[in-house]
């Protein structure tokens, strides 16, 4: 299954009709004219010449519109080599294209040209080793170009790649890490957290120590995601459980978001004033404060469905009813909780929410709801059958 990329209009391929050696010479001459220091072309060693070209292609960073045509020309040279040599060239070129000299966003930028090139290379080759490498490179250049959204990054697709390319455990983890970073750059923290959770599930208790950096990142991204309000599933992962002994503060903070309240958050910040900025890497903690308040409100809703304004104000440290109503309206719009404000009774009537901890009681409740739904569907089916066959009505009631 190929990566789905929304591509710009096809560009004219530079030197598209040249013989291979002539094409290499002309690309080399162009690069030299723009500041490269390529040696004399050696027709008997085309791979060496091609490697020199890709390693010196950094001069394209200061070229204008012609650069895209040179990108396409280098690509057309690479696909002429056998698979092993092509992979060597692609790896060398990737090192150059991901260097700091290539900057910009969108299709009409150097990273954007690279997205087009890597998409073509990814679709051209069938060899798993090239598929694996070019897709990771595609994610990285797309991150730089802010074009990750143009690539099919669903976990279903990624899992199919893992199976099709027969990736070993190390390669799977490398791919998922690259995807996680790309999704964060694309401002999709929930998707990134899902990918990181999938990555951590590849570790067992025996190798949980190796997963420490990934486990920390998983917890961090889950905490800072403004749309995520359920965290207890993370404690089922051995790599996250391991944090209790190696990173007690982060583990404590995770438990605050699982079952703690605003008071716990305030206490944690008071004891660790630099933690949010230095460890969670969050400059402005206002979104986190809002999230903790929503979680505290969910905890109140778990105990009673009609919550007095006064209780919400004291629990969430909201001084006035006007601010309280604004906050709850904002919460309702986020979808974290459903309900309505009752201004007459001065209470918030909760109709639904996502439980903070989905334990045995929640599973039993879900089972009962499914049983009732199943029974209702069976009854509805009988009514449809009776409506279709009136002669059965007498038998139904006797």
Automatic annotation (TrEMBL):
<comment type="similarity">
    <text>Belongs to the CSN7/EIF3M family. CSN7 subfamily.</text>
</comment>
<dbReference type="GO" id="GO:0033290">
    <property type="term" value="C:eukaryotic 48S preinitiation complex"/>
</dbReference>
<dbReference type="GO" id="GO:0016282">
    <property type="term" value="C:eukaryotic 43S preinitiation complex"/>
</dbReference>
<dbReference type="GO" id="GO:0071541">
    <property type="term" value="C:eukaryotic translation initiation factor 3 complex, eIF3m"/>
</dbReference>
<dbReference type="InterPro" id="IPR027528">
    <property type="entry name" value="eIF3m"/>
</dbReference>
<dbReference type="GO" id="GO:0003743">
    <property type="term" value="F:translation initiation factor activity"/>
</dbReference>
<dbReference type="Pfam" id="PF01399">
    <property type="entry name" value="PCI"/>
</dbReference>
<dbReference type="InterPro" id="IPR045237">
    <property type="entry name" value="COPS7/eIF3m"/>
</dbReference>
<comment type="similarity">
    <text>Belongs to the eIF-3 subunit M family.</text>
</comment>
<dbReference type="GO" id="GO:0001732">
    <property type="term" value="P:formation of cytoplasmic translation initiation complex"/>
</dbReference>
<keyword id="KW-0396">Initiation factor</keyword>
<feature type="domain" description="PCI">
    <location>
        <begin position="188"/>
        <end position="355"/>
    </location>
</feature>
<protein>
    <recommendedName>
        <fullName>Eukaryotic translation initiation factor 3 subunit M</fullName>
    </recommendedName>
</protein>
<dbReference type="InterPro" id="IPR000717">
    <property type="entry name" value="PCI_dom"/>
</dbReference>
<keyword id="KW-0963">Cytoplasm</keyword>
<comment type="function">
    <text>Component of the eukaryotic translation initiation factor 3 (eIF-3) complex, which is involved in protein synthesis of a specialized repertoire of mRNAs and, together with other initiation factors, stimulates binding of mRNA and methionyl-tRNAi to the 40S ribosome. The eIF-3 complex specifically targets and initiates translation of a subset of mRNAs involved in cell proliferation.</text>
</comment>
<keyword id="KW-0648">Protein biosynthesis</keyword>
<comment type="subunit">
    <text>Component of the eukaryotic translation initiation factor 3 (eIF-3) complex.</text>
</comment>
